[in-house]
Amino acid sequence: MWVKEKSGGSWKTEINRLMGKRLSFLFFLVAMVSSQVFSGDPSLILYLSLDKVENGLLIDQSDYACRVKLPSEESLVEGKIGRGLNTGKGYFLTVPFAPQLCLPRGTGLTISLWVKLEKEGVRWAGLIKNDGGKSTAYREFKGFNWGTDGSSRDVLLTEAGWRFTVKGEGSETVTARPIIQLGGKDWAHLAAVYDPSARVRGLFLYVNGELVEDYVMIDMPEEIGTEEAWIIGKDLTCFPGVIDEIMVFKRPLSAEEIKRIYQKTK
């Protein structure tokens, strides 16, 4: 169908306008479907699909619906589903502390997200952390930090690994290596699980629905919650790529539940 040329514009401009509306509608549909799939679980305390934005604020699609300031419109690019956060260009999110983000003593934790690497090297790049502004690289902290290991220089992906640390009364870290073989430069689903129960006492890392690393904690930190903002996409440096479909649960998810999230979002 041909679009009639308008004063001060052209049929190409009109087509671009209509295409923009169509894309906005598609992002809306993606957000609606995603929120319906994962809503209703009170342990889901944060779900940023990155597809729902109102007045410069990302809308959390968990039942708590918190607001997170968007760095800029340019921070959103094509993601795994709809739009993703372009951390490779230095963008990251600060999630203000809210009561639902509190992690009481003995509470487990699960973090699920999709990532795509767009660089050959990393140096302490962050996925998500709550450490009171203190870095795992140089200072002790209470909280959790998930990202990559690294150094003061870029570490090749063939040498670097995913790193998940929880700290409190004690501190433990689990690292899965190497990045390039565990969801390298294609889209990969990652999940980190902390289970402080007496029966399990473990840290677990999953890639594309499969367990790749588990670690039994000896010095088990039972209390890792803080009343500080959560940082998504940055530790000492920003994650060199794109992050999408960020979910945080206030309990340890089972292997079957991790697999189900992967299958529903892949």
3D architecture notes:
This protein is α+β, with helices and mostly antiparallel strands and 266 residues long. It has one domain: Jelly Rolls (Sandwich). The protein has 2 helices and 20 strands. It has helices at 11-38, 255-265, and strands spanning 44-48, 53-54, 57-59, 67-69, 76-78, 83-85, 93-95, 109-117, 121-122, 125-130, 143-148, 155-156, 162-167, 171-176, 188-195, 202-207, 210-216, 230-232, 237-238, 241-249. The strands form 5 sheets. Strands 7, 10, 11, 13, 14, 18 and 19 form a 7-stranded mixed beta sheet that branches. A 6-stranded antiparallel beta sheet has the order 1-20-8-15-16-17, covered by helices on one side. The longest helix has 28 residues, at 11-38. It is globular, with a radius of gyration of 19 Å.
The poorly predicted ranges are 1-9, 11-16, 18-37
CATH class: Mainly Beta
Structural domain tally: 1
User: DSSP strand (E) fraction?
Assistant: 35-45%
Give the SSE string: HEEEEEEEEEEEEEEEEEEEEH
Secondary structure class reads: alpha+beta
Q: How many helix segments?
A: 2
The largest pleated sheet is described as: 7 strands, mixed
- In terms of quaternary structure, the protein is single chain
Mean residue pLDDT: 81
User: How many β-strand stretches?
Assistant: 20
Compute the separation of the termini in Å.
35 Å
Supply Rg: 19 Å
Q: What is the overall shape?
A: globular
Q: What is the annotated CATH architecture?
A: Sandwich
For this structure, the CATH topology is Jelly Rolls
**Share of helix, binned:** 10-25%
